[in-house]
Amino acid sequence: KTACEGYKNIALIDVGWMGNIQSVFARSLGAQWAEKQIHGFYLATFAGANDNRSIYNKMFGWLTNYGHPNDKCDLFLSGGVEIMEFAMADNTGSTIGYKKTDNGIIPVREDSSGFEIEYLKKAARLQSGIISFFEYVKPLIQKGNYAALSSVVLSEPFFELIARPSSVQLDALSSLTHSESAGSNAERIVLAKKLPLKDKLFPGENYIKELNASYWKEGFKRINRKKFWAKYN
Questions:
Q1: CA distance 57 to 38
Q2: For position 175, what pLDDT does the model report?
Q3: In angstroms, rounded to a whole number, what is the distance separating the alpha carbons of residues 11 and 221?
Q4: Cβ-count burial of 5 within 10 angstroms (0-12 exposed, 13-18 middle, 19+ buried)?
């Protein structure tokens, strides 16, 4: 509330999805929210974000906006979300709550262990590559050539990764884990579980069950292909 006092227009920037955090933020302002125009700028927003928008609370997705285009949204929902959240992982660990101190409200971090530590180490390696990319294009940005970085064409390699991963990409990413449990990383599920050979050669009920439970659908199909010796370029 204190930070927003005296400002009518407020912008939030995040990876995106449903707009829940923006909605909670708006409500946390108390009576102030009716005097504000809150705009959220996201990598992607899904159809569910419609439930959180109002004349005071608007959201804009770059790659998908309220679930459109459908084909890109489907790719996000079949592995893209988890891989993008991996790229954006906070290397200080997961926030499980907040507490008041003399210096204001601070986050309470979960003690990282096991899969979470390994996950954060891999995320840090990926993030170092992201930083290197922006160091490379910094001269363009400094000259104001923003249009060169605003094209959705830049996202095509990401969607290609989700829809048609190579063998190298499968080896690097299929064993990543993801947790859907709020405030806990104790139960983490791999993005694309590798099945025993018999389930690859004779896919049945277990194959279908694991495919449905898998976050990264195409990754699962490729890593559990019948021709397990074949490689994807």
A1: 5
A2: 84
A3: 40
A4: exposed
Give the residue among 169, 148, 145 at the shortest CA–CA distance from 157: 169
Map 25-72 to HEC letters: HHHHCHHHHHHCEEEEEEEEECHHHHHHCCCCEEEEEEEEECCECHHH
The sign one gets for the Cα dihedral 58, 50, 46, 86 is positive
Rounded Cα–Cα distance for residues 1 and 58 (Å):
19
The string of pLDDT tens digits covering residues 64-115 is 999 999 999 999 999 999 898 888 888 776 777 788 888 878 888 777 776 7
The per-residue pLDDT for 182 is 46
Query: In one letter, which amino acid is 196?
Result: P
- Measuring CA to CA, which residue among 226, 191, 188 is closest to residue 207? 226
In the chain, DSSP assigns E strands to: 9-17, 37-45, 57-64, 95-101, 104-109, 177-178, 189-190
Buried b (16+ CB within 10 A) or exposed e, 183-210: eebeebebbbbbbeeeebeebeeebeeb
Report the share of the chain in percent with pLDDT over 70: 93
Share of residues in the chain with pLDDT > 90 (%): 36
**11 has which bridge partners?**
39
pLDDT tens readout for residues 30-49: 777 778 888 999 999 999 99
Pairwise CA distance, residues 74 & 56, whole Å: 29
Contact between 191 and 83 (Cβ < 8 Å): yes
